[in-house]
Amino acid sequence: MMEELVGVGAVTLLGVLEQAYFSLQVIYARRKYSVSPPATSGPPEFERVFRAQANCSEYFPIFITVLWLSGVFFSQGLSSVCGLLYLYGRFNYFQGYSESAQGRLAPLYFSAQILWILIGFSAVGIFLTFCRVYLNVDLLQELCSILGLF
Known about the structure:
- This protein is mostly helical.
- It has helices spanning 6-33, 44-73, 76-99, 105-134, 139-147.
- The model has no long low-confidence stretch (mean pLDDT 95).
């Protein structure tokens, strides 16, 4: 079972490292713009870095949850690819937001779409597993039989 989840585990670790990188960028911005903790306001350049990190942190639990649900119940491979795309989008979001408020928009929309795909994969996977385990109906097998794939 563990070998089957190594892709999702690797993406999770990359996500944690990305979050650590974002946090370090806030520390560097605090030093650069002389904003001492616990202050969260300062020059616009600092505030953009701070908000980019906070926004990424706010979405991280949702991402990790649907990444794992999708990986366990739907497809580890597709979930891992989507996870990498999400992390790429979030990195671009952070970089774009750090430069300008407008720079965050395209990566924000991209990463949100990937998140919705993972939510969809999770829902389908859980539904199919529920049907197979509790209703004793394998909908995928039934569908393939109807379509003549088996």
